[in-house]
Design brief:
There is one protein chain. Helices cover 21% and strands 25% of the residues. The protein is built from seven helices and 13 strands. The strands form two sheets. Strands 7-8-9-10-11-12-13 form a seven-stranded mixed sheet. A six-stranded mixed sheet has the order 1-2-3-4-5-6. The two termini are 13 Å apart. It binds zinc ion.
């Protein structure tokens, strides 16, 4: 069964408006242009699985009325996807248990290095260990992987300067932060009904790290998703303008959208 997937944030690294209330091409009067940093939550009957912990995590959790996170799955270690990790301390204090986090080796190693204090108990227990890490190994990519009661299929993506991970949950897949996809990723995505995909490259001829809209159109000829929600949107991508520009089957994402209601 496909779990419920909610977009907590669909913004690019700086969010919209950017600091200083810079809206770029976005209409400040359109509520769907207010975008926090990219993250989704995947919910089964018994499990709340958070994908990434960006700098807006606290706001995202509070406005979605979630009071428990069972596990966190990371796409990659860029700051706009990880720097809210410290907020997970609150669940340690409140629920008195450690949170399991998952990701590829590069991501988990970087998290353990940058946020080492969250992975050990310090000062004789005054600051207890918050996180338990689990590396999804390369031989586990492209086949079903279980996190609590949620089935996920991890796939590797090209993100220009590093690899990122995409994740498929039944009929829904999440591909944030990618430039291009290889054959095995496309095979994993095949048959998905709803695909949330990074289109931050927008109408540029070329972007070094993010897919352009043309790239998404080309890839979806293979993936054949019924609906593609374009995400990781920049301040140059106004909601209504983008909605008008996109062809049938493509729509801009927005914060709070439940993609499979
Ligand atoms: Zn990134």
């Amino acid at each position: 069964m496909t779990p419920k997937v909610t977009i907590l944030g669909c913004g690019h690294s700086a969010g919209t408006p950017m600091i200083g209330n810079y809206w770029g091409a976005c209409d400040p009067e359109e509520p769907k242009n207010r975008r926090t940093r990219s993250s989704i939550i995947v919910q089964s009957e018994n499990t709340n699985l958070l994908i990434d912990t960006g700098p807006d995590l606290r706001e995202q959790i509070n406005r979605t009325d979630i009071n428990r996170i069972d596990a966190v799955l990371y796409t990659h270690a860029h700051s706009d996807h990880i720097s809210g990790i410290d907020e997970l301390r609150v669940f340690r204090m409140k629920d008195r248990r450690e949170t399991n986090i998952y990701g590829n080796a590069e991501t988990i190693n970087e998290l353990e290095e940058r946020y080492s204090y969250l992975f050990t108990t310090k000062h004789e227990g005054i600051y207890p260990k918050v996180l338990n890490s689990h590396i999804i190994k390369e031989h586990e990519f492209y086949s079903p992987y279980k996190i609590e009661d949620i089935d996920v299929v991890p796939y590797e993506q090209e993100h220009g300067t590093c690899k990122s991970m995409g994740y498929r949950f039944g009929d829904v897949a999440y591909s944030t932060d990618f430039l291009d996809l290889g054959q095995q990723a496309l095979e994993t995505l095949s048959g998905v009904k709803i695909w949330i995909a990074d289109g931050c490259g927008y109408k540029m001829e070329r972007n070094m790290v993010h897919a352009t809209l043309d790239k998404l159109y080309q890839l979806n000829q293979v993936v054949q998703a019924d609906k593609v929600y374009v995400s990781h949107l920049s301040q140059m991508m106004d909601y209504q303008t983008l909605k008008d520009e996109l062809p049938d089957g493509f729509e801009p994402a927005y914060d709070g959208l439940v993609v499979n209601n």
